[in-house]
Design a protein that fits this description.
Number of helices: 14
Oligomer: single chain
Structural class: alpha/beta
Mean pLDDT: 95
Largest sheet: 10 strands, mixed
Order of helices and strands: EHEHEHEHHEHEHHEHEEEHHHHH
Length: 337
């Protein structure tokens, strides 16, 4: 079977101005062996050659890498849509001008709760800077979204955060579950919260604002309202199973290739672009076997008995792995909550 690469999440640096308590990649300092500018440009060319249509650029903090604009422009000048995910802390007029000239498709700003909770898990003053970044971006006409990572302490504060979010002219608000990996695992953060409560929140507010509110791939699964709750107002945005290695890949700042950048474990590294070409890694029959070789017989637990199991395929591989080590069994599926 031939697999077509359409999406990529690319961590261009591990350098960050934060060291958040739930950072899955333990960002802070740049790796000593991060890809050079020339290597990054070659990776961009490889993505273009493979037909990748959309790249989400992440860190660390993207703007801490001085050549971020050069890498972005290599992609956008060749028809690849690029979204940048940022904590908003370093945002300034120069970055705003560079975003315009780089022809960015959109920017996503992380805001993880009301001020006191956001700042507690990041650093003092970070909430105000993130909100300011959203205000400046939307005011400049740059398509902007907000991403909120949910855990036990902030999931109950969504109504309060909504009062802030709805003030801005964003196009989307994504709610995703904190995965117990990296700093979240090291700190003992309680990642658990009620998926059903979050889904009820989305259902309550989805039609009250001009932007879409949706849950990420690691929440939910095949309730009656699944399509609507994933942020597409057509009601047809059903979860189609984990796409890691099927149509998407992740690239880290040292050139390691995974099916998804949320699968932040050496077990899931398929190769490194310094040793093999991106095409050879993507097209290898041995790559991404956990998904490309999926069959419903691999499902375990309640997922094995679920009538939607072969479609959902057990949910998010990364979340499953880091919560209980079982790739083919969702630990908190909304159908069984």
């Amino acid at each position: 079977m031939t697999y077509k690469l359409t999406r990529c999440v690319w961590e261009i640096t591990l350098a960050c101005c934060f060291s958040c308590r739930y950072c899955g990649s333990r960002a802070g300092k740049a790796r000593e062996n991060e890809l050079t500018t020339d290597e990054c440009l070659r990776v961009a060319d490889a993505l273009i050659e493979l037909g990748c249509r959309r790249v989400s650029m992440i860190g660390g903090e993207v703007f801490m890498r001085r050549d971020w604009k050069d890498i972005v422009m290599r992609l956008t000048s060749n028809g690849v849509a690029v979204n940048i995910i940022t904590n908003g802390f370093l945002f300034n007029d120069r970055i705003l001008d560079e975003l315009r000239t780089a022809h960015i498709e959109s920017v996503s700003v992380s805001i993880d709760g009301p001020r006191e909770i956001h700042d507690k898990y990041r650093q003092p003053g970070s909430f105000d800077r993130a909100v300011n970044a959203v205000s400046v971006l939307t005011g400049a006409g740059i398509p902007t979204s907000i991403i909120t990572t949910l855990h036990s302490e902030n999931a109950c504060c969504l109504d309060r955060l909504f009062d802030t979010v709805k003030q801005y002219d964003i196009f989307a608000w994504q709610l995703q579950a904190c995965s117990p990996m990296g700093n979240a695992s090291d700190s003992g953060l309680d990642h658990r919260f009620s998926f059903l409560d979050v889904m009820a929140f989305i259902d309550k507010h989805a039609d009250t604002v001009p932007f879409s509110i949706g849950m990420a791939d690691n929440i939910g699964y095949f309730t009656v309202a699944d399509g609507r709750l994933r942020g597409n107002r057509s009601g047809k945005a059903f979860f189609r199973g984990c796409l890691a290695g099927i149509s998407s890949i992740g690239i880290d700042s040292a050139g390691n290739i995974r099916g998804c950048e949320a699968m932040y474990d050496e077990r899931f590294i398929e190769g490194n672009i310094r040793e093999r070409s991106l095409r050879s890694i993507w097209e290898s029959p041995e790559s991404f076997a956990y998904n490309r070789g999926f069959s419903k017989e691999l499902l375990t637990g309640k997922c094995a008995q679920c009538s939607f199991g072969e479609y959902c395929a057990g949910g998010c591989r990364s979340y499953n792995y880091f919560v209980h080590g079982k790739l083919y069994e969702s630990p908190y599926c909304a159908r069984n909550s």
